Amino acid sequence: MATELTAERTLAQLLQSAADTYAEQVAIEDDGEIITYTELNRLRLRAAAAFHARGLRRGDHIAIWAPNSYHWIVAAIGAQSLGIVLVPINTRWKGAEAAYALNRGRATLLFTVDEFLGQCYPQMLADQDLLTLRQTVLFQGQAPGCESWDEFVAAGAGVDDAEVNALSAQVQPGDLMDIAFTSGTTGAPKGVMAGHGQNIRIYQTWCDTVGLRDDDRYMIIAPFFHTFGYKAGWLACIIRGASIYPAPSFDLEQVLAQIERCRITVLPGAPTIYHSLLAHPRLAEYDISSLRLAVTGAAPVPVELVHKMRNVLKFETVVTAYGLTESCGTVSICEADDPPEVISATSGHAIAGTELRIVDPQGKELPRDEPGEIWVRGYNVMQGYLDDPEQTALTINSEGWLMTGDVGWMNSDGYIQITGRLKDMFIVGGFNCYPAEIENLLCGMEQVDQAAVIGVPDERMGEVACAWLVPAPGAVLDESTVISWCRRNMANYKVPRQVRVVDSLPTNAAGKVLKNQLRELAEST
């Protein structure tokens, strides 16, 4: 049963409404721990009480640097209920990178774990100059100078629910809810500010569009520090009353086993996740018939992959979406009943209540089917970059348009296709080349599973395409065969002059290909 949730509400109001509506339905199942919506609301109030007891107030900032778990969610919603601002930190970052976000984000409390994937987070911060941090709390494990989660929560025993609710009532929908740092691939990471009301409105729209239901069991593989795992993940589940199954990391065997054991129905993620599932040699041994809904993006989605997701993985619904941190994670999305060709070729239309346009370098709107920069305007546009009005003004113009830096075109139905980043575009003999366009074409080659394209220097042409390809299972690729195929299937200036066949592409925790690493590899060989 779906419930109508208004746009102008805070996270505390959302959680209380979810508890009233969904009550004893499972909110989270994590490593044997089963938490109903009633219990989740109780845990939220107790966490909020602990924050208040520690002296944190509306407008203060806390950080979470940890893998996906129910503790992550409870800490976040406990803080946000009081108007405390969440600063999620990338679990792939090392000490100096995390310290930058902690200092820039003015975090006074850090929630983390003693160790994850061989990295000891408290130890990595031991020699960092942390300007605002007062205390570190561990969700699990022990480390010098850190307190446990249970000790933290116990500190709030003297603060009753009535006091927490009174404090929560002071929080407004326009108040800052989180500061998400960009990946930093084009410079120092920037803190993107988003409010309560806009986050909830965006992901209510997202739920309506993709068809998330209150009886869904949603495995969240995307990390919670990323908008895909956080806002299109556990926040969307709370909005709709679905059950959350956090995955701390992408372990293929564990994922398949949990799909079968927990009858998972929703499995969003980057295309690499579905490629991995399809390539598993023992896929047929697992019962994955419960899978219903997949939402993907962040990389090219070949039409053949969409067909396999439906026919082999048995998803009833596959949709693609596009967003960036500065749009709170969502700009456009396909409809659930769009055909595979549309899902593969586009990233959908603007979400309800927002605007999209394609513009030339002077900011003039272009006709349909002409490539240009993608601009977006509406309630999904960030409040700005933290403490950086100059960069904010360069990114959001005086009319409220967010200039994404992404290049694409829009068809007559208002659906957009992303062809690359402005910074990734390269020029071959005077012709503009957009990597995503070439990657999509390459993924049409039967022997290609994944593709990434970068521009590399060329004495005669200025730049040429260099393609990095992952072969399909059992396929053999060589440079001459690929180039011959490309000459038959794309304009000559787009044809890669260099082809590198690799076992996998370097990706970040959200599944996006790290093209800066490919450029470094190309320069060193």
Please, could you describe this protein's structure?
The structure is a single chain. This protein is α/β, with parallel strands linked by helices. The strands form eight sheets. A five-stranded parallel sheet has the order 4-3-5-6-7, sandwiched between helices. A four-stranded mixed sheet has the order 12-13-14-15. A hairpin with a 3-residue loop joins β23 and β24. α2 packs across α3 (70-81), α2 (37-53) crosses α7 and α8 crosses α9 (227-240).
**Computed Rg:** 23 Å
- Any idea what the shape is? globular
Main sheet: strand order: 4-3-5-6-7
Strands, total number: 25
Structural class: alpha/beta
**Number of helical stretches of at least 4 residues:** 17
Poorly predicted ranges (pLDDT <50, ≥5 residues)? 1-6
Strand content: 15-25%
Helix content: 25-40%
Mean pLDDT score, rounded?
A: 92
Largest sheet: 5 strands, parallel
Distance between the termini: 57 Å
